[in-house]
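Re: the 130-residue chain
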Amino acid sequence: MGADFVIAVDLTAGVLSQKLDFDQQKDKSDDQTVSWMTKLQEGLDSLVPAFVQKETDLPSMLDVITSSINIMQIRITRSRMAGDPPEIIIAPHLAHIDLLDFHRAKEAIQEGEQAMNAMLPLLIERYDSI
């Protein structure tokens, strides 16, 4: 589009590689959110009752859907950045925030601010050289 200096924000950085670690350490203190997610998961599982096996450690339908969306987002991000690479990539650590965690927006914004502050010296250095 003719920009001289492109800054990209990669919201998918580390999502798949860190997802398992964060899922195991996830704080379950928000009972209302846990209850809502459990109801949603049970509702999705009821759509395909033949595949529901509560005794095993198989992922739920919601887990499969969110993992599929994450993979799709990562593939699109990589493709776009390979085709037109930016000068700087800012990658906030958001792997601990799930796809439907809209109530954690403030936390996501703070992660973005921290990532931007970490890259600010490099951004200033590169901008001065233009």
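The mean pLDDT is 77.
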